[in-house]
Known about the structure:
The chain is of the alpha/beta class.
Amino acid sequence: MQQPILTVNGVIKSFGTTRALRDGRLVLRAGEVHALMGENGAGKSTLVKILVGALTPDAGEMRLDGALLQLGSVAEGVAAGLVPIYQHLTLMPHLSVRENLLAFDVASGSGWRATPVRRNDERVGAMLAAVGLTLDPEVPVASLSVGEQQLVEIARGLARDCRVLILDEPTATLNRREVDRLFVILRRICAEGRAVLFISHRLDEIEEIADRITVLRDGVATIEGAPRGTLTINDIVKAVIGREIDINELKLPSPGEVFLRVNGAGVNDVFTDVAFELRRREILGIVGLLGSGALEIGQALSGVLLLDRGSIELAGTRLDVKSRRAALRAGIGLVPSDREVEGIFPTLSVWNNALASAFPRISSLGWLRPVAGRALLQPWIKRLALSPPDPERNVGALSGGNQQKLLIIRALIAMRIRLLIALEPTHGVDVGTRAVIHRTLADAARDGMAVVVVSSDLEELLVLCHRVIVVRSGRIVAEVPRGSGAAPIARELTGAAA
């Protein structure tokens, strides 16, 4: 067994009266990918911030190669070889790959302009080769795919004498090909004697890449460094949320009459000739690889993207959806794909965020009725187990999973919602929150709503949807009924079945 690089023992961290970490424990060994899991709010982010020096623990200790480690800043953490790569990348998109790779040299006063060009070229080439990239270092970072940008950031981190690479939800915005590429690089990094801390909610990826697994719940390690293969998915789920749930089956209602008709819909250079029907009480899945047009179909249905041609009919009436506001008035709710950019109002309260689209329901003659607002919101807070259940709390203080629950609530309590478009509805949430959201969408369908779910998560679509349509190169290429499994969807996604 490899010797530990980094050991964390009994770390405690409180914020006022809230104890975020009660007993944080972690052992990272050279040559291993170590997965860290837990619900949103379980203490993962707090532990990572302590690991990299962004926070100082109230108690407990960290040891690097057996020596006591005390960090006062992120700079000290990086200097010690603890390099974080966050979900939201820190690259400068309008600068070149070279400039981004050498940015820390500039910050430290040893800029590349003072270094011979040949030596810089050799260094940049070696940094790119370390993560398997062969590209022109003079191109702007903005021109790269998301997966390539992530590898550039990893390359920059590895060059800083990295001992432990910390990845926070690294696959959240990647397609399957990019995930496979990333995993090859992570194995190469481990083979060089480094350790990788891999933070993710995706159970299938954890099973694939992790050598060991640690689970946090309520700030305590409920599973501590268990080797891969010694745990079942149900073991992990129970450790994450404290109870067993059925993650493989969800009872769906029987669909009713046709409610939505899409005919010959198209948006130039995005998708074309899209046609399908959706029934009341039905959940329809839409899936496609990045750039396929799948996400944009959902955006067009909800008024975010305007159609160039074709038509949308709702309950037999042709809609002229020219804006998100017009779609909302027609009874079309939306859960956006990026809660931070398109969803929450981070400086406002839970109350203001949840009721942003429900003003007609809680107002009279243009005046807000707070009592009506509370009466409308409180049952939903309880139903989705929003934590903390405080409508006055600033939404920016909520975990990502609770922010996602809030977006679901906002979409469902808006005025006269008959059709719900949910774009990546469980993006970046834990298994417990995922189960709550799935159940809530199924209940919405059971109550008579028609639901469209656009997701890159095949497991989610197989569990949640009556059927799935597959989009490739801007066209619908297949429709797969519930119970068919992932294989036919995967074949159609890549064109292997053609």
